[in-house]
Each structure stands twice: as C-alpha cells, then as structure tokens.
Design goal:
GO molecular function: DNA binding
Structural class: alpha/beta
Helix content: 40-55%
Order of helices and strands: HHHHHEHEHEHEEHEHEHEHEEHEE
Keywords: DNA-binding, Transcription, Transcription regulation
Organism: Micromonospora mangrovi
Pfam families: LacI, Peripla_BP_3
Distance between the termini: 102 Å
Number of strands: 12
Protein name: LacI family DNA-binding transcriptional regulator
Strand order of the largest sheet: 2-1-3-4-5-11
C-alpha cells in the first residue's frame, strides 16, 4: 500500500512535467475514467458534486485534456458559429455579447462571420462554419426564403435570430417589428404629423420590409407616407436628408438608429431645427441613441437577451434536450427629445 507521502509525489511530478493522464485524475477523484471524460467534455449528466471533485483533481494534477482528441471522440468542437450581416452595427455587437457570454458559461466559444450585407455570401459562410463548429446561429439573414430553408434544414443544429419563416422547423428568436412600428406611427400621429418620410433600410432585409409595410398600414387615414431610399449606416441617413426634405415631410422614421443619427447630423448642418421643423425617430435603441443631439426617440429591443435566448435554444440541441418554444420580443417606445408637435403650416 502506498504511503500518503508516496501518493502525493506523483501528482507533483506530473504537474511539473505536464504529463498528467485521465487515469491519474480518475484515481485522485475516486471516479471512473468515463466520469472524468464526461466532466471534461461538459456533458450535463454528471452529479455536480462529482464535477467539483474531478475539476479539483484535474487542477491539482495540472491535467489538460487534448482538445483534438475530445473533438474526435465526441464529434464536438466546443465552438458555435454566428453569421451577422454587419459586424460594425452596434445592434449585432450587442447580440454577440449576449450570445458569447452565455456560451462561455458552458465553455463554448463563438466563431463570428460577417456577410457585409451580401446575401449571396451567407450560404457560403454557413457551409464553412459548419465544418468548424457544433451549431450555427443565423442572425438577421438577408438570403431569400427558399435559400434560407435549404441552409437552415441541414443536419447541423441551427437557431434563427431576428427573422421568422413559417414552417421552417428550427428554433426562432425574433422581434415583433410591427409592434414597434405601430408605436412610432401612433406617437407621430398623436403629435399632429400628417406627412411622414420612411428612410428605408437594405432591400433584402426582412425587418425593413415588415417595418415599411406596418408603417404604411398604421398611417392610413392618419398621415401620408413617403418612402426614401436609405440603407443601414450613418452615411445613408446623412445623404438622404435633402431627398427627405423635398417630400415636405415633418417627421422622419429611420429604418434604424444609425440612419436616424446620420439624418440628425445632416439636419444640423443645414440649420434645420429638430424637432421644431422636423421630428426624427429611429429603431433599436442602441447605446448612443440617448446621447444624440437631440436625444433620439426610438423603440428599444433587448439586444443582449436576444443573444442569450439564441444560445439557450442552441445548447438544448447540443445537450439532446427539447429546445424552449420560440420567443418574440415586443419593442418598447422610448420618447426622447428628437420628436415634437408638427410645425404649424404658414
């Protein structure tokens, strides 16, 4: 029988040499090699008390599992992927924070791909990410419905974020864009605006289509709506202001906060009073919306929570559990200083 001092010696030598084995961890923790393997691979079927014992033993021995061997044995990489249309947009940055934080709690890492608003790139990126990850989040995909159906129904677990498609059969976390736009329409109509311009987003954005259609319907009988081509970035809003003013609109609804912010900047350059002459609203409530001059009226979306909820559903797939039901978040109107009563006609 080994003496206590003899038992402590090998872990010290292994820790110095870095050659600790899974068998040594199992012996130190008083469990089987299979249990150590399940703990190291993050499987949710191990008693929490055993998890703590195994991790403590592994730390004491300096044991580090072979990541390549783990992946081969389990068919897992410890990585999930996400495709976003524009990584420079604070909306998607916030979603990523929520996703990566929640994934990190399960010792997963997030592989990020930016399609740069090019819908044709998304299926290519999806194929590449699937080779390197265990699951995929499609965030606000721009691809057509028929292509999305093909991409989303491949064997790798997929979660759809910020877009809905009936009959797709994959977990979905979405935003009720119509609810948010109805709130904006009611706010502007209540302020007496009778001519409103919608500064539209990317043509291949499903959210843009819903927001425009809702604003058109909600404005019927309340105000005339003028659609002005825009985009998704500051410069798109900045460059569209002269065309907006040419419509005679007294209020501008931006596809998102970025284009609204760009419009505010150009209106200031032209010496136009906001909201005295023109009211401006955005959509999303990104962090600096409140710091615009004037502060931006918008609708707020719980962006980081979208990312967390997407991870929860992806993890359920990976753990062999039933994903939670689809969830849709309703944006809330946030009234600030960029909107006011319609100017009195002279």
């Amino acid at each position: 029988m080994s003496s206590p001092s003899g038992h402590r010696g090998p872990p010290s030598r292994r820790r110095q040499s870095g050659r600790a084995t899974i068998g040594a961890v199992a012996q130190a923790a008083g469990v089987s090699r299979a249990t150590v393997s399940r703990v190291m691979n993050g499987l949710p079927t191990v008693d929490p008390e055993l998890v703590e014992r195994v991790r403590a033993a592994a730390a004491a021995l300096g044991y580090e599992p072979d990541g390549t061997a783990q992946s081969l044995a389990l068919g897992r990489t410890g990585v999930v992927g996400i495709i976003v249309p524009d990584l420079g947009n604070p909306v998607f940055q916030a979603v990523l924070r929520g996703l990566s934080s929640a994934a990190g709690d399960r010792d997963y890492r997030v592989l990020i791909a930016d399609s740069h608003e090019r819908a044709e790139e998304e299926p290519i990126l999806a194929r590449e990410i699937r080779r390197r990850s265990d699951g995929l989040v499609l965030c606000a995909p721009r691809m057509p419905d028929e292509v999305l159906r093909q991409v989303a129904t491949v064997r790798t677990p997929v979660v759809l974020l910020n877009r809905r498609l009936d009959g797709l059969g994959v977990p979905t976390v979405s935003v009720d864009h119509a609810h948010g736009m109805r709130a904006i329409a009611g706010h502007l109509a209540g302020l007496g605006h009778r001519r409103v311009a919608y500064l539209s987003g990317p043509a291949n954005s499903a959210a843009n289509r819903v927001r425009l259609a809702t604003l058109r319907t909600a404005g019927t009988g309340r105000f005339a709506l003028h659609q002005v081509a825009g985009g998704a970035h500051f410069e798109d809003g900045h460059d569209a202001v002269e065309r907006i003013l040419a419509t005679g609109a007294t209020a501008v609804v931006g596809y998102n906060d970025l284009v609204a912010y760009g419009a505010l900047a150009r209106l200031a350059e032209l010496g136009r009073s906001v909201p005295g002459e023109v009211s401006v609203t955005g959509f999303d409530d990104i962090p600096f919306a409140r710091y615009a001059n004037p502060s931006l009226t918008t609708v707020a979306i719980p962006l980081e929570e979208l990312g967390r909820q997407a991870w929860n559903r992806l993890w359920a797939h990976l753990a062999g559990e039933e994903p939670s039901p689809d969830v849709q978040f309703a944006p809330e109107l946030v009234v600030r200083h960029s909107t006011g009563p319609a100017p009195v006609a002279r």
